[in-house]
Amino acid sequence: MAIQEFLGERQVFTAAEFAQRFPRSQTDRNLLSRAVANGTVDKVRRGAYVSKTGRFAGAAADPFDVALAVTPDAVFCYTSALSLLGAAHNVTRQVQFYTAARIKAFAYDGVRYLPYRAQGTRLAPQGVLNATGRGYRVTNKEQTVIDCLANIAAAAGPDNLLHSLASLSRLDAALVAATAASAAHSVRARLGWALEAKQAQWRVADETLAALAGSLGAGPYYFWRATAPRDHYWAKRWRLYLPHPEQEMASWLVN
Question: In what side-by-side order are the strands of the sheet with 111-116?
Fold first, then answer.
């Protein structure tokens, strides 16, 4: 049967892809509805499906493929970007992405899908390939660093973020500083501190650090918590309070 062949070939698919394969076929649409009803196909959301039959029986779908089936314009960000860039420290059961679609967060198969609006964000996405050759769009390294420093909670906290950044063997320090030009003072303070801690490995010019330091206001700024219990370890140059001793946090950035 043609529909069984299709479900054996495509683990994650959309209603549009199904309709393209079976145009003008009410019978096949009825069979798809029946497959959803009997559990051989999961309906993730309207228009997005996961096959659970044949070689896909009992096999978890790639969460990034699920996100793309729901929002084809997805640009993966935060911890998802770190993962696709090969820098994730901890495995998280969430997928984060920018999209122009107005959708709410949803869950499927134990994974939380978190859409973000890219308001004021210069995405400059890059393409990456997974082990099977599937391509995804992801915020580039510099934008990912700025995004994560701007929303450390979305980056799964300071520990995960700094250990993840330790895996980035290269970073265009001048570009990331330029990308941060329109960011909040607190983000530039966090960035300056991180670039200084990684100055040797990332080949950060003294001029880049001086420009960042000179762009700050009076402060103080906070790396993690500005409300009680507040960060209280002081990094003088960056007018920045840290949640842990500076030397300890700097050690998290060492690969």
Answer: 106-108, 111-116, 94-98, 75-76, 135-139, 125-129
In sequence order, the β-bridge partners of residue 222 are 241
pLDDT in tens, 93-122: 999 999 998 999 999 999 999 999 876 556
> In Å, how far are 88, 137, 206 from 213, measured between CA atoms?
28, 32, 11
- How would you classify the pairing of strands 111-116 and 94-98? parallel
pLDDT (0 to 100) of residue 3: 82
pLDDT (tens digit per residue) in 123-143 = 678 888 776 778 899 999 999
Distances (CA, A) of 248 to 163, 197, 201: 12, 11, 18
Helix (H, G, I), strand (E, B), or coil: what is residue 108?
A: strand
For residue 197, give both structure tokens.
Answer: 């801690």
Residue 68 CA to residue 14 CA, distance in Å, equals 9
| Contacting residues for 173 by C-beta, under 8 A, at least 6 apart | 195, 202, 203, 204, 205, 208
Q: Spell out where the chain has E strands.
A: 12-14, 41-45, 48-51, 75-76, 94-98, 106-108, 111-116, 125-129, 135-139, 221-222, 233-235, 240-242
Identify whether the C-beta of residue 199 lies closer than 8 Å to the C-beta of residue 210. Answer: no
pTM: 0.91
CA distance 129 to 64: 12
Which ranges constitute the DSSP H helices of 62-205?
A: 63-70, 78-84, 141-150, 157-165, 173-179, 185-197, 199-202
* Residues facing residue 128 across a β-bridge: 136
How far, in Å, CA of 71 to CA of 75, rounded? Answer: 9
Higher pLDDT, 120 or 152: 152
